[in-house]
What we know:
It is a single chain. This protein is about 40% helix and about 15% strand. By secondary structure, the protein is of the alpha/beta class. It folds into two domains: about 5-130, translation initiation factor eif-2b, domain 1 (Four Helix Bundle (Hemerythrin (Met), subunit A)), CATH 1.20.120; about 140-340, Rossmann fold (3-Layer(aba) Sandwich), CATH 3.40.50. Strands 6-5-4-7-10-13-14 form a seven-stranded mixed β-sheet, sandwiched between helices. Strands 11-8-9-12 form a four-stranded mixed β-sheet, covered by helices on one side. Strands 1-2-3 form a three-stranded antiparallel β-sheet, covered by helices on one side. The chain is globular. The two termini are about 30 Å apart. The chain binds 5-S-methyl-1-O-phosphono-5-thio-D-ribulose.
Amino acid sequence: MTAPETLRFENHRLILIDQTKLPGELTELVCTSVAQTHDAIRRLVVRGAPAIGIAAAYGVCLAVPADETGTPGRSRYIDAIESLATSRPTAVNLFWALDRMRQIVDSTPEAELKDALVAEATRIHEEDRQMCHAIGRNGAPLLADVQTVLTHCNAGGLATSTWGTALAPIYHLHQTGDAPKVIADETRPLLQGGRLTAWELSQAGVDVTVITDSMSGSLMRLGKIQAVIVGADRITARGDVANKIGTYPVAVLAKHHGLPFYVAAPTNTFDLQLDCGDDIPIEQRGREEVAAPHGVRIVPDAADVLNPAFDVTPAELVTAIITERGVIKQPSRDAVAEHFANA
Ligand code: MRU
């Protein structure tokens, strides 16, 4: 199975699948500067917590053009890191990747910086590939007997280097022809489920059905969904999970119907500095995404609009968190600490 190449770094250029254009057009956007990378992350050309981190790491390298001769000073890279850190606030993977780049800036002789930074960004990218495959292996047994699984937003290959987090166990099972059927919430307002999850799963030959966000409760009541799996943008020390807006109500519905609610995320999505999910910064996006999707006005100008991009699901509603290291069952402060202690 060929997974889509969400992003790559070639000849000192960051090349991104333009996810704003999918599924209508499969086109690429080329970034050659920090400002272009910042804009691509902000506009969701590249999105999904791990992919944002990888793109930002490569973006730091673009602080100095390929053809510039001489030794660039540290300050241009530091400015790039500080700028990219303002692109989106919720996915902690962005800050984790920028911290790694900052450590290289601080610890490498200036003459070697250019190459060392590209090497570190490439390592972050490669590690993500391995983490996705490990999450696939670790999560597959949890979905092995599931006929139909619900997912929300896109936590697939398009949100990472390959395979994704929530979709990785599904791709893993698909290799042997045993993948469950997938129901994808369309995921208002930007339709990452309807546009992106449906696109990448159907490209891979996985059976996928799109529903509107309000349908999942009814399907659960009718017994048509046996499990839920989603990704995460930030997970706290007690196991509270920030993910795409609309995840929390799905978790509540799963609890009500006695269905397992799984979260799949690499360990770099954990923010162990934060205890409670209420402390996670939630991105607030512009009104037009809700009021005028695709340029068509559906809300009167006189009405206010709320557009938080993420919500928080408390740990009590999460059956298990699947990471590249294993499975945290019934996440709690102790269970999360034990998972990290056993690294
Ligand atoms: O606003 P987005 O599209 O970046 O939101 C993405 C999500 O909420 C994903 O579920 C999350 O980042 C996990 S991606 C493996």
